[in-house]
Amino acid sequence: MFRRPSPRSTPAGPDGAGRLDLAPLRRLTTYARRYTWRLVLALVAASTGSLLFLVFPVVVGDLFNNAFGAAAPRALTGWATDLFGGAFGGSGAPADLNAIAILLVLVLLLNAVATYVRVYQLGYAGEAVVADLRRDLFGHLLGLSVGFFETRRSGEITSRLTSDIATIQSAVSTIVVQLTSQAVSLVGGVVVLFIINPRLTLVMLAVLPAVIVAAAIFGRRLRKISTAFQDELAAANGRAEEAIAGIRVVQSFTAEAAEAAHYGGAIGAAFKSAVRRARVRALFVPSVFSAFLFGIGLVLWFGGRLALSGELPPGDLITFLLLTVTVAGSIGAFTGFYAQLQEAAGASRRVFEMLDARSDVVAPEHPVELGSVRGEVAFEGVRFRYGDRGEAWVLDGIDLVARPGEVVALVGPSGAGKSTLVTLLPRFFDPNEGRITLDGIDLRDLEPHELRGHVGVVPQETLLFSGTIAENVRYGRPDASDDEVVAAAVAANADAFVREFPDGYETLVGERGVKLSGGQRQRIAIARALLKDPRILVLDEATSSLDSESEALVQGALDRLMEGRTTFVIAHRLSTIVDADRIVVVDAGRVVQTGRHTDLLAKGGLYRALYETQFREANA
User: Fold this and answer.
1) CA 111 from centroid of its chain's CA atoms
2) Is 76 helix (H, G, I), strand (E, B) or coil?
3) What is the DSSP string of 286-329?
4) Predicted pLDDT at 203
C-alpha cells in the first residue's frame, strides 16, 4: 500500500541548506529536450545580448572621451566613425560624436532584438514544458489506485500540479540561459576591465567579494525566514479553506469563534515570521547598498586619481563604473542561482516522485476479453486488509456468489466490512488472498477500464462536477445524445425538477452539486448510472440520508435501475431491502448469515437483532 514519505527522507528545502541533488534536474531535461532548438536560440540570443551589453559601456566611454577630446576612439567606435562619418560632413570631433551616437543606438536596438528573442523563446519553452508535465502528471494520477489517494491529501497533490511545476517553469525559463548569459557578462566584463586598466580592476575585485559575501549571507537568512513565513501562511490558508468548505458544520456547531481563533493563531505565527523578514530586509537593503556604494566610491576615488595623473581618460572611468556594476550584478546573480537550483531540484523531485508512483491495481499484460457479460459475481475465500491500518483483516474469508440479475443486500453493524466488500468489485483494491470472478474470470485478468465499464456505483454521498446537469448525466456515457440524456433523467425521476429550472438541463449545479438538494443530486447520479447501463450495480446506502418524499422518488428510480442487473445493495435501513433476492449479513469481515428476509427473521441471530432494534426505534 502507499505510504506518505517520511519527513526525514526529504532533501533540504529552498533555504539553501544541504547538498544539491542534480538528478531530478537531469531528468527534467527529457522534457526540455523536446524544445531544444528554442532553448538553443534563446541561449544564442542571451549570449549575444550579454556581449552587446558589454559593448554599451565601451561606446558610452568613447562618447565622453570624444566629447572632451580626451582620447582617440577605440577600434569599434573608430570603425563606426569611418563608416558613418561621411554622413555628417567628413571627419572631426562633431562628426565622430554623431557616428558614435549612431553606433550606440544600433547597439541598443540589437540588444532589444536579442532580448525579445530570448524572452519569447524561453517563455514558450517554459510554458510548453509546464504543460507537458502537468498533462503527464494529471494523467498518471488518474490511473493510480484509490489506495494512493487515501494516503495523500488533495492539497498536497494540487500543490504538485501548481506551485511545484511553476517552480520548475522558472528553472526551465531562466536558470540555464541566465547562467550562460551571466557567465558571458562576468568573464567578458572582467576581461574588458583588465584591458582598460589592470590596476583599477584589481581594486574593484578586492572590494566586490566582500559585498557579494554579505549579500549572500543576508540572502540566505532572508530565504529561510521567507520559507517559514510561506509554510505558516499555507497552514493558515489550509485551515481557512477547511472552515469555508465546511461552513454548514461550523455554523451548526456554533464554532465560528473557535475557527476564527485557530485562524487568528496561525496568522499570528505567520505575522511574526513576516516581522522577522521585514527586520532582516531592513538590515539587508541598506547594508548591502551601503557596501556597494562604498565599493563604487573607492573605485571612483582611485580612478579619479588615475584620471588626474593622465593615466585614465574620463570616459574610460565612466566605462569602468558601468562595467563594474555589470560584473557585480553577474556575481550577485550567481549567488541566487544556487538557491533557485535547489528549489527547482526539490520541486522536480516531488513531481517525479508522484510520476514514479505505481498503482496497487496493475493491468494484466495480456487481459482476457469479457465479451458479452452475464453478470455472475463470485467471491472465493477473499481476505483483505488496508496496509496502513494495522494487521487486522477487514474481510476474512468471504465466500459469496451473486447470480446474474440477482439483488444481493449486504447488512451488518458499522465497520463490518460491507463497503470494503463492494469496493473490490471495480478493482479499486485487490484482495490480499482469494479471488473475485466475473462470469468465471478473475478480475485481475481483466483490463481495469473494461471491467469498470460494466460496474456502476451510486454512493450515499453523490459527487457532481461543477458543470451543467446535462454534463453530469452525460458523464456516464460522453457520446450520449440529448434525447438519451433526457430519457435517463426521466427514468431516474429527475426530469420534472430539472425542467423547473430556468435553464433546464443547462443549469449549473455548482461545486460538488451544492445548488441541488440531496434527493436531486441522488437522482442525477442514478440518471448517470442508467445512461452508463452497467451489468453490475452497487448501491451504497443510496437513500439513507434522504427525507421520506425524496426517498420515495429515489427508490422508484432505483427500482428501474436495478431491473435486469446484478445488484449489490448496502442498506442501513433494513425496511428498504426486505424484497431482496438474498440478504447477506456481514460481521467482523465474515459472512455470518444469508437468506431471504422472512427466513432470516425466523432463524434469529444478528439479522433479527438488527431488525428488531430498528423496529423499536421506529416505533419509539
Assistant:
1) 36
2) helix
3) HHHHHHHHHHHHHHHHHHHHHHHTTSS-HHHHHHHHHHHHHHHH
4) 78
Q: Closest Cα to residue 47, out of 223, 150, 147, 186?
A: 186
For residue 385, the one-letter residue type is R
Cα-trace Rg, the chain: 36
- What count of other Cβ atoms lies within 10 Å of the Cβ of residue 258? 12
Of 132, 135, 163, 115, the residue nearest 32 (C-alpha): 132
Q: On the CB side of 322, how many CA atoms lie within 13 Å of its CA?
A: 18
For residue range 511-532, list pLDDT tens digits in order. 777 788 877 888 888 888 888 8
Whether the pTM exceeds 0.70: the reply is no
Long-range contacts of 215-220 (CB under 8 A, 24+ apart): 215/284, 215/288, 215/332, 215/335, 216/335, 218/280, 218/283, 218/284, 218/287, 218/288, 219/284, 219/335, 219/336, 219/339, 220/15, 220/16, 220/339
Taking the C-alpha atoms of residue 437 and residue 430, their distance in angstroms, rounded to an integer, is 12
pLDDT in tens, 253-274: 777 888 888 888 888 888 888 8
Q: With a cut of 50, which residues of the chain have pLDDT below it?
A: 1-18, 72, 75, 78-80, 83-92
User: Mind giving me the DSSP string for 190-222?
Assistant: HHHHHHH-HHHHHHHHHHHHHHHHHHHHHHHHH
Is 237:333 a contact under the CB 8 Å cutoff?
no
**3 state DSSP class of 69:** coil
pLDDT at site 19: 55
Cα 156 from Cα 163, distance rounded (Å): 10
Q: How far is CA 259 from CA 70, 250, 252, 253, 268, in A?
A: 74, 8, 13, 11, 14
d(CA 302, CA 202): 11
Report helix, strand and coil shares of the chain as percent, to nearest 5: 65, 10, 25
User: How many CA atoms within 13 Å lie on the side-chain side of 410?
Assistant: 28
